UniProtKB/TrEMBL annotation:
It is a multi-pass membrane protein. InterPro entries: ABC_transporter_permease, MetI-like, MetI-like_sf. Keywords: Cell membrane, Membrane, Sugar transport, Transmembrane, Transmembrane helix, Transport. It comes from Nonomuraea soli. This is Multiple sugar transport system permease protein. Its main location: membrane.
Length: 304
């Protein structure tokens, strides 16, 4: 009869090494607060918002299930359609100038030098200012005797009602947001430019490549992933913009600056149409996800 003898030198598969257990416990302890925060402050509200988007909940009583009625109402609502269009205009007119200007400023600032280090610090000042404080500063700039009208007066142009004109208010917000966002994107693009391999530019110089050709054929393709990151966060930030419209214009005049986040807030709290606001929030989230996916599809491809 054959007797099986267990080899004591081979550790059991069920028993983990002793030093692994404290490490696992420490890992759980360190990640538990983050997991709790994620569940309580993100996952639970997100699931609740999805549920409320199918109800007629109005802040009082219990939600009543109405199915897709909120979504059907949304696409027949002139206020929603107007806000969606304003959001598109606002996003395009803030993202494109900000990225173009940031790239133009980042190219010279990426070069080494003490002066450039100081300039990079200066361009970050608007970005680190609180958005509420920045909005209040620009309210003063756009006032009747503010800096904007003072400069127009020096050029012989009559003062403008920047924040109370339905034709000018949206552009006043755009200028403020571009000024506010420029510094952050300059720093990001500067870091991307400084990380590019120098030998590629040396080879291009030996081949007689001009500045424009080098920028379009070498710099931009190598900077693709950085540009993708800047584009994604700038589009997402513009589509979620609420504070500038809330503090500078209150969505007016005549709903000219009523971007979609402001319209969602107005329906959720002053009007107490929480279910309808949740449905619009889901549509905004879906639009942001789709646009981000398209950006990754078009810009991420290709080897650097």
């Amino acid at each position: 009869m054959k007797v099986l003898v267990r080899d004591e030198t081979v550790p059991s598969r069920r028993a983990a090494p002793r030093h692994v257990r404290p490490q696992a416990a420490a890992g759980v302890a360190l990640t538990l607060p983050v997991a709790v925060f994620f569940v309580v402050f993100w996952l639970v509200p997100f699931v609740a918002a999805i549920y409320l988007s199918f109800t007629d909940y109005e802040m009082a009583g219990t939600p009543n299930w109405i199915g897709l009625a909120n979504y059907e109402r949304m696409f027949a609502d002139p206020g929603f359609l107007n806000s969606a269009w304003i959001t598109v205009v606002y996003t395009v007119c803030t993202v494109v100038p900000t990225i173009v200007l940031a790239l133009l400023v980042a190219v010279p600032l990426a070069k080494p030098g003490r002066l450039n280090r100081w300039l990079r610090a200066l361009v970050m000042i608007p970005a680190v200012m609180p958005l509420a404080a920045t909005s209040m500063v620009w309210v003063i700039i756009y006032s009747d005797r503010g800096l904007a009208n003072t400069l127009l007066g020096l050029a012989g142009i009559e003062p403008q009602a920047w924040l109370t004109s339905s034709d000018l208010a949206i552009w006043a917000l755009v200028v403020m947001v571009v000024w506010k966002s420029l510094g952050l994107f300059v720093i990001i693009l500067t870091a991307g430019l400084q990380a590019l391999p120098g030998e590629v530019y040396e080879a291009a110089a030996i081949d007689g490549s001009g500045a424009v050709t080098t920028f379009t054929r070498i710099t931009l393709p190598l900077l693709r992933r950085t540009l993708l990151f800047v584009l994604v966060i700038s589009v997402a930030g513009s589509m979620q913009a609420f504070v500038p419209a809330f503090l500078l214009t209150g969505g007016g005049p005549a709903d000219a600056t009523q971007v979609l986040p402001y319209y969602i807030w107005a329906n959720a709290f002053p009007y107490e149409h929480m279910g309808y606001a949740a449905a619009m929030g889901m549509v905004l989230l879906a639009a942001m996800v789709i646009i981000s996916a398209l950006q990754f599809a078009f810009l991420k491809g290709g080897d650097e």
